[in-house]
Amino acid sequence: MTLVLFSLGVYTAATGSGLACQAQWPLCSDQLIPALTINPDFIEWFHRAWAMVTGFLIVGVAGWTWLGSGFDRRTRLAATLAVAILPVQITVGAITVTLSGLVPGGYTVSTHAAHLSVALTIFTLLALATIWGGGRGNARLLRAAAGIALAGIVASALFSRAVPFLTYAPPAQAAFYVTGLAGHLGLVATIAYATEAVRSSYDGLGAGTAKAVRALAVGSIGALVGTLLLGRDLVLYTATWQQINLVALGVAVALAAGAAWTLRGADEVRDGSVPIGGD
């Protein structure tokens, strides 16, 4: 739900629908529910409705971690922090559409940057709550996380504004964030599972290998977040910024590939060291 909300928000802004609803919030053009046809008012209203349902579900997840059994302190903390930050996201979103025009200049680069950053923080906290709440990791999950991270980042490159492959139209922008956030989720999982492997080895995966994988994933996630920020109109996107964006994207891919390759190499070493049993 949060991943889809991200893409809906990007699509809404890219189509200019964030300026719809006559700059009203929570009403939309003096209506609670606008005409249910594909138009800017409906796009903005649908984004708000999806956000509302998602917000209630985030609160429900946090409550589940406290009322349910088997969840540790870090899982509860991550889910609770996501709820604590949620009002900030709602407030920034309201400012973005200018709170019925009460906040002049609310639809600005700075509010867009804040809206994106807070949303990414909530998404990351929910990812951690999901990963930690799922129980102890293992080498297979770590390898899968690294693979998902690499696949997501490579896929996002096809839609990125840094790569002149597709026109960076609203659908492409939404697709860029869906794939980019999938890569982000994979990197978050890689870091979480690698950190766990440092403390207690997975199936012979040594602490040294786990630390290397974690370092590569941390570097990759830093570069990927840079591309996610540059995916919005936060700067005057000149040829220089395009080159910077391309370099950041390349670094993210290279480091994610390095993490995946390191885990593959560890597999080969371990498999090669297993003795063949006799009779």
Could you please describe the fold and organization of this structure?
By secondary structure, the protein is mainly alpha-helical. It has 8 helices and no strands. The termini are far apart. The chain has helices at residues 2-14, 40-67, 73-96, 109-133, 139-159, 170-199, 207-230, 239-273. The relative contact order is 0.11. Mean pLDDT is 84; it is low at 268-279. The radius of gyration is 21 Å and the shape is flat. Helix 3 packs antiparallel against helix 4 and helix 5 packs antiparallel against helix 6 (170-199). One of its GO terms (cellular component) is membrane. This is COX15/CtaA family protein. Pfam families: COX15-CtaA (PF02628). One of its GO terms (molecular function) is metal ion binding. It is a multi-pass membrane protein.
